[in-house]
Every structure is written in structure tokens, then in C-alpha cells.
Write a structure and sequence with these properties.
Shape: globular
Oligomer: single chain
Radius of gyration: 16 Å
Distance between the termini: 18 Å
Order of helices and strands: EHEEHEEEEEEHEE
Number of helices: 3
Strand content: 35-45%
Helix content: 10-25%
Structural class: mainly beta
Length: 189
Amino acid sequence: MADSSWLFEQNVPRGFHYRDDFITSAEELSLLDGMADIAFSDFEMRGVVARRRVAFFGQSYDRKIERPIPESLWPLRAKVAEWAGIASEAFAMVLINEYRPGTPIGWHRDAPQYDIVAGVSLLSACRIRFRPYRSPASTAPTSRRSTTHEIVLSPRSAYLMTQESRSEYEHHIPPVVSLRYSITFRTLR
């Protein structure tokens, strides 16, 4: 897995890889054009409807294929897979998130049936914050936990969450300032 060269070390958990300008402006426009035909829906988890809208493709959480991954996403999936050092078909699930201004995503760790998580940011920047994961079944004190790592995800950038960043941390995105899309790819365990 190749990492970007940085003058100063990034404040990210071990196993988090980031690359600015992963795609070109032309590739971003092409992806946005392709998304014009995608039907987004509200996202509900544990009875709560999130403020972001989503479109799922490929294998869902229960490993059923609801909708096949659109061919317009295949070149991006291949590019991300090459960076991750895996076959593009290993990314069995794609999630496109639409974040309207003011939309956050709360603290979470991606579902355990997924392994590598990769994302590409479109249109605007956001911050992603990390803190150590604590299982809901944990007997540890319930004191407030703080962000331990943070990085700005620029438009057209990409990230990979592997190793500790994937399994030992949870992450969240504070409310975004302007419209943002993220395309998330996941491999199955």
C-alpha cells in the first residue's frame, strides 16, 4: 500500500492512509454526472433517520445483492483497489453518501462483516475525527471520550482504513459546510 509523502506526520491512527488529489477534476465531474441518475434514500439505523441520504450497491450488510455496482463506478473502484493492493472485485459493496450543508455522521465503526474501508470525497472538504472504540458491552467507565486524531478530507482525495484505524477506532464527520458526496468501498471479511 503506497502512502503519500508528508513533510510532517499526519495525525491519524495506524492503518489510516490518505492521498490528496486522488482523482482529477475531470474524473470528479464524470462521477457527479453519473450520480445524477442515482436514486438516494434516507438512511435509518436503530430506528433513527440520519440527515444524510444514501445509495447502496453490491453486497449489503446481510450479504444480499440489492443493486449491482454501476459500471460508472468500476474505474474508480479499480483505481482504489490498485492503491489498496487488492483485486477490484474484492470491494463488494459501494455506498454513496450525500451530505447536505449541516449534515454530520455520528460516531461509529463500520459493520464488522466489512474489512478494508476506502472512501473518495467529492465537491467539498470535511473533517474526519477518530477516538478509541469502546464496545457497548464494555464495563469501562462511561466517561466522555475525546477525539484523539483528526484530518481534513479534501475534495478529490481518498483514504483507506485498515488495521487499527479500522478495528480499534471509531470515527465521525462533524456537520459539513457545503454539499459533499463520499463514495465508500468496502471489502468483506
